[in-house]
Amino acid sequence: MKLTLHHINLATENVARMDNFYQEVMGLSPNVAGLPVLEKKQGYAGDVAFVSDGHLQMHLAQKDVLAGFNAGQMVNPVARGHIAYRTDDLAAFKAHLRTQNIPFSDWGNKAVSGWHQIFFYDPDGNVIEVHEVQDIAD
Question: Does the pTM exceed 0.70?
Answer without folding.
Answer: yes
